[in-house]
Specification:
The complex is a heterodimer.
Chain A (H helix, E strand, L loop, with lengths): L6 E10 L4 H14 L3 E12 L1 H16 L3 E6 L4 H9 L2 H4 L17 E7 L4 H14 L6 H22 L5 E7 L3 E8 L4 H5 L3 H10 L1 H5 L15 H12 L2 E14 L2 E20 L6 H8 L11
Parallel strand pairs in A: 1-2, 2-3
Antiparallel strand pairs in A: 4-5, 5-6, 6-8, 7-8
Chain B lengths: L2 E3 L6 E2 L2 H15 L5 E4 L5 E2 L1 H15 L1 H7 E4 L3 H15 L6
Parallel strand pairs in B: 1-3, 2-4, 3-5
Classes of the chains: A alpha/beta, B alpha/beta.
């Protein structure tokens, strides 16, 4: 007779970032496969956390809770820096753990936007505005580049609601570093392949190129009557322009766009879509230039000035 | 009201949700005015989704003549102009990404 395991740890180690994102999924898979009824996040040996990992871990904890697993809290990182960071970005609050009690708080002004759970579409614009406040305080970004960042945020956060149909909404956070900005948008929705599968015209492209490479092509949408299918396309164009990174992990597909170079592969399934965005602060972020490539000036539109 | 000041909605106009609100506001005001001014003073940017939901749907339903005859756009910055040009061209089938 097999013994029922009540509690099992999901134990993570080292640096958690886009390159190690699958570690989180592998550990979650081990937990689910163990037959345990409750989980505890053991982060004792975590030394460094990027926004995509914080958002992913928070979404994962919420996902497991929604599946009926009990949550026995978090073992905080021994690394004071890692614990302090998780506390400051409201990770413990997001997973509804009590571990940030008595942790010193610091003003987030100008450096990061805490983990935010998005549950209403009307919140997207406001949150994008808060994130751009972080960007605006960076002296090495001009107004055009700030504009580009807000443009990208508006497009990818709105995807959570239009395409992902994520009942649990999503998590968004952002951190400004010396030379780049890292943004994470994670949802627990149907995923990009299922979303594009609603549109028969997109299916052929998905079969030829794979769902994620198809998703960054223009006019790829599961809802052509309502959406234009250009959000991820514009995002990828801006990433190429600034030499940044666009990472997409959607169910069992994973794509990494490093500047102009793209890698796509199968991956350990993530129950939704996770987007990692790294934008370089080099002022090559220019929405105007990108749009003009596809719609040059024309006398038809002189009324726009 | 013969002028809608877009900045009263946000200094960065984003989401289809807001685009639909502004589109309805434009159509509502055109019921009582032959020409409506859309003032972008203070707006430093907009998203493609907002622009398509608001202005893309308007041009698809009413044609480019409606824009030329009944709407007056003022104080657009170059980024906003570029996005609007693309959205209108896309809905009219003349943009290269279309």
């Amino acid at each position: 007779m097999s013994q029922i395991i009540e509690l099992k740890e999901i134990r993570l180690r080292g640096n958690l970032h886009w390159g190690t994102f699958e570690r989180i999924l592998a550990e979650a898979g081990h937990f689910i496969g163990s037959g345990a009824r409750s989980f505890r996040l053991n982060l004792r040996d975590v030394t460094f956390v990027k926004p995509i990992a914080a958002a992913g871990l928070a979404a994962l904890a919420i996902s497991l809770k929604e599946k009926g697993f009990g949550f026995a809290g978090v073992e905080i990182p021994a690394s004071r820096d890692a614990h302090s960071y998780l506390s400051r970005i409201d990770f413990y609050k997001a997973v509804r753990a009590a571990e940030d009690i008595n942790m010193a708080r610091h003003s987030a002004h100008g450096r990061f936007v805490e983990l935010n759970a998005l549950s209403e579409i009307s919140e997207c614009g406001e949150l994008a505005g808060r994130i751009v406040e972080v960007v605006r305080t960076q002296i090495d970004l001009d107004e055009r580049a700030q504009n580009a960042v807000e443009f990208v945020l508006a497009e990818i956060t709105e995807n959570i609601f239009h395409h992902a149909r994520s009942a649990a909404g999503g998590f968004v956070c952002c951190q400004s570093y010396r030379d780049h900005l890292a943004i994470a948008v994670v949802d627990l929705g149907v995923g990009i392949q299922a979303s594009l599968g609603q549109n028969p015209n997109a299916v052929e492209m998905v079969q030829q190129r794979g769902p994620l490479l198809a998703a960054i092509q223009p006019k790829m949408t599961g809802r052509p009557a309502f959406n234009s299918g250009l959000g991820l396309f514009w995002t990828s164009e801006l990433v190429k322009a600034c030499g940044g990174v666009l990472g997409i992990h959607s169910w069992d597909n994973r794509l990494s766009l490093y500047g102009e170079n793209v890698q796509q592969c199968r991956a350990i399934p993530w129950p939704g879509t996770a987007i990692h965005l790294l934008l370089r602060k080099n002022n090559k972020l220019n929405v105007k230039e990108i749009f003009e490539r596809f719609a040059p000036e024309s006398s038809n539109f002189e009324f726009l000035g | 009201m013969d002028t809608i000041r877009l900045v009263e909605h946000a200094d960065f106009l984003s989401t289809r949700f807001l685009g639909e609100i502004v589109r309805k506001e434009i159509l509502g005001n055109l019921g009582s005015h032959s020409v409506l001014t859309l003032d972008f003073q203070g707006v430093f940017g907009l998203s493609h989704s907002f622009a398509d939901e608001c202005f893309g749907f308007l041009v698809a339903e009413n044609g480019i003549g409606f824009f030329k005859d009944r709407l007056r756009f003022i104080n657009l910055n170059p980024e906003t102009q570029a996005i609007l040009r693309f959205v209108l061209a896309d809905r009219l089938g003349t943009a290269s990404a279309a």
